[in-house]
Amino acid sequence: MSDLIERSINRDRATVTLARPELHNAFNDAMIEEITRAFEALGRDPKIRVIVLAAAGKSFCAGADIHWMKRMVDYTFEENRSDADAMARMLRTIRECPKPVIARIQGTAFGGGVGLAAACDLAVAVETAKFCLSEVKLGIIPAVISPYVLEKIGPGHLRRYGLTAERFDAAEAYRIGLVAKVAGTVEGMDGWIDDIARMLCSNGPRALAAFKKTLAEVVGFRWDDVQAVTTRRIAELRASPEGQEGLKAFLEKRKPGWAVAD
Fold first, then answer.
1. How far apart are the first and last CA of the chain?
2. Which residue, among 114, 103, 138, 127, has the nearest Cα to 62 in the 3D structure?
């Protein structure tokens, strides 16, 4: 079993758990590959009817692992593009999984963590959860996750939170459509998941898969096209002087050179 994620199956429900609580479940290239493979396998399993994406510890997902970010500083454009493509494949595998996927969110969901939540069909958050599209603070942008977040919250809200990088709470995440339910407690969150899972399991599995596929074909944009645009854009920015300065400043725990003094 991987030490990056855990998989468990209880009758017709599978749970994929991000298992790096000491790093707030921040992901790296290996974890991205593990998540992709897990959803590919579960999507093919005829016994599985619902998948829950959960996380161990206090946080859902803090985005990119700092050790992975240190390696990114020296990546070429092509290495950055390949890296972004792997993340895009992970998100598409979750979104296009033929089984309904529910995100279970506690603590923080920052950067790519917001993308993970948005790629799921439904998300529930405990009321103390916090969200942030923090990328612009590093001189980069939430490029690869943008089509998934856009699909959930719309262009106006994405424009605001993608530009300001301000934090928002679970109530705001519900208001703008990122999550479908806010629960007062973890127990309440799990109870809601149980109720929704029962509803989903009473529906035709082929019909659910066909409906998800239909939505992917008729709503919004061509996913192959947006993946090409977003992975190129983030690769360009990561390799740019501003992106390099932002990443180095974050790793060195200082303000980037462009920051305006208070």
1. 49
2. 114
The residue type of 43 is G
Per CATH, domain 5-185 is 3.20.20.190: no
Residue 69 to residues 13, 244, 250, Cα–Cα distance (Å): 34, 11, 10
- pLDDT 10s per residue in the chain (262 long)? 468 999 999 999 999 999 999 999 999 999 999 999 999 999 999 999 999 999 999 999 998 887 777 787 778 888 888 888 999 999 999 999 999 999 999 999 999 999 999 999 999 999 999 999 999 998 888 889 999 999 999 999 999 999 999 999 999 999 999 999 999 999 999 999 999 999 999 999 999 999 998 888 777 667 777 777 788 777 877 778 887 887 788 778 788 876 766 5
Q: The pTM is what?
A: 0.89
Cα 205 from Cα 188, distance rounded (Å): 26
Q: How would you label 160-176 residue by residue, b for 16+ Cβ within 10 Å and e otherwise?
A: ebbeebeebebebbbeb
- Percentages helix, strand, coil for the chain (3-state, rounded to 5) are 55, 15, 30
Q: What's the rounded Cα separation, in Å, for the pair 127 and 49?
A: 27
